[in-house]
Automatic annotation (TrEMBL), chain A:
Organism: Nocardioides astragali
Residues covered by the VOC domain: 7-136
Domain of life (superkingdom): Bacteria
A Pfam family it matches: Glyoxalase
Name the UniProt record assigns to this protein: VOC family protein
Lineage, opening ranks: Bacteria, Bacillati, Actinomycetota, Actinomycetes, Propionibacteriales
UniProtKB/TrEMBL annotation, chain B:
Name of this protein: Helix-turn-helix domain-containing protein
Positions of the HTH araC/xylS-type domain: 18-116
Record bears the keyword Transcription regulation: yes
Source species of the chain: Nocardioides astragali
InterPro entries cross-referenced by the UniProt entry: AraC_XylS_family_regulators, Homeodomain-like_sf, HTH_AraC, HTH_AraC-typ_CS, Tscrpt_reg_AraC-type_HTH
Presence of keyword tRNA-binding: no
Stretches with biased composition (Basic and acidic residues): 132-141, 150-159
C-alpha cells in the first residue's frame, strides 16, 4: 500500500446555480451548518457541513473563470438535467427525515425503500443535484452480501 | 430565500423535464401517463414527447422501457421471483412483451441474464444508474458491414 499521508476527505464541491438558494436548501432543509461564507472578490467561498462531522460541501457556483461561457452553459445544462453526481447522507431516523423533507415540499425522487444494507430515499436540490439519505442497518458488508446471495438462492 | 432561481429557458425546461422523468422513475410500473407528466413539466401533452426527446435523447416510452428493464434486471439478479412475476412487477402486462423487450434491450433473455449475473451489494441507486441498459446493448441483428434490421415493434404503443 502506498503511504501518501492523506488523512481524510475534507471538502467536496457541489455545482450550484445560485449560492443563496443553495445555502437555504442545505441549511434550512438538510440541517447543515455554514463553515465558511467568504467573499474572496473573485468568488464566494461557501462551505457547509453536517454539525459534528468534518467533511464539508463547497457550494460552488457554476461559471467561474475555469469555464468559458460555452462550457459553463453545458455544465448548467447537465446539472439541471440531473446528469451530474450526488451527495450521500446518513440519518439516524430516515423516516422522520423523509417526512420532514416531504412536508417541506422538497422534491422527492424515491420514497424510503428497505434495502439489505438499510433504508434510503432520494431527493433533489433546487438545481437538480441528487441527494440520497440512508439509514444503514447493523449488517456488516459480508452480511449484506450474504443477504443478497440468500435472496437469490432460496 | 428571496428572488426566484434564475434559469435560462433551456435550463428551466431541463429542470421541469427532470421532475417529469423523476415521476416516471417513481411510477415505472404504471402505464405511461403523458397528461400527468406533461402537467408536471408545465407542457401540453402534445409537446411533452418531443421536448423529452430533445432533453434526454429518447422518447418517454423508450425511457420507461429501459427503466422497467433495469428494474427487472435487479429483480432477476437479486431475487428468485418467477420471471412472470418480475414482468408483472415492473409494469409489463404480458410475459411475451416483457421477454421481447428485455431481449431487445439487454441482448439476453431474462432467464439467460439471471443465470449469468449474481447479486451485488452496493446501494440501490447505483445499481439503478449503472445497470440501466443502453440502446447499443441490443443484440446485433446483422453482420458487420451489412444493413441492420430495424427493431421489431410489437408493442402496440411502441414509439
Amino acid at each position: 500500500m502506498t503511504t501518501n499521508h492523506i488523512t481524510s476527505l475534507h471538502i467536496r464541491s457541489v455545482p450550484v446555480l445560485d449560492q443563496d438558494e443553495a445555502l437555504d436548501f442545505y441549511t434550512t432543509h438538510l440541517g447543515f451548518e455554514v463553515r465558511d461564507d467568504i467573499d474572496l472578490g473573485f468568488m464566494r467561498w461557501l462551505t457547509v457541513g453536517v454539525p459534528g462531522q468534518d467533511t464539508s460541501l463547497l457550494l460552488e457556483l457554476v461559471g467561474g473563470p475555469q469555464h468559458d461561457e460555452s462550457t459553463a452553459a453545458q455544465v448548467r445544462e447537465l446539472v439541471t438535467k440531473g446528469a451530474l453526481g450526488g451527495v450521500f447522507l446518513l440519518s439516524d431516523d430516515v423516516h422522520a427525515t423523509y417526512a420532514a423533507l416531504r412536508d417541506a415540499g422538497v422534491e422527492v425522487t424515491q420514497e424510503p425503500v428497505e434495502q439489505p444494507y438499510g433504508t434510503d430515499f432520494g431527493i433533489r436540490d433546487p438545481f437538480g443535484n441528487h441527494v440520497r439519505v440512508s439509514q444503514p442497518n447493523v449488517a456488516a458488508p459480508e452480511q449484506v452480501q450474504d443477504a443478497y446471495d440468500a435472496a437469490a438462492t432460496k | 430565500m428571496g428572488r426566484p432561481l434564475q434559469l435560462s429557458a433551456k435550463e428551466d425546461i431541463n429542470r421541469r423535464m427532470l421532475r417529469a422523468r423523476d415521476e416516471m422513475d417513481r411510477r415505472y410500473a404504471e402505464p405511461l401517463d403523458v397528461p400527468t407528466l406533461a402537467a408536471i413539466a408545465h407542457l401540453s401533452a402534445s409537446q411533452f414527447g418531443r421536448v423529452f426527446k430533445d432533453v434526454y435523447g429518447e422518447t418517454p416510452h423508450r425511457y420507461l422501457q429501459r427503466r422497467r428493464v433495469e428494474r427487472a434486471m435487479t429483480l432477476l439478479r437479486q431475487t428468485d421471483r418467477p420471471i412472470t412475476d418480475v414482468a408483472w412487477d415492473v409494469g409489463f402486462a404480458s410475459l411475451g412483451t416483457f421477454s421481447r423487450t428485455f431481449s431487445n434491450i439487454v441482448g439476453l433473455s431474462p432467464s439467460e441474464f439471471r443465470a449469468q449475473h449474481a447479486p451485488v451489494a452496493v446501494p440501490s441507486c447505483f445499481i439503478a444508474t449503472w445497470t440501466r441498459p443502453r440502446e447499443q446493448q441490443r443484440r446485433p441483428t446483422s453482420e458487420p458491414g451489412t444493413t441492420a434490421v430495424s427493431e421489431k415493434r410489437e408493442d402496440p404503443d411502441a414509439d
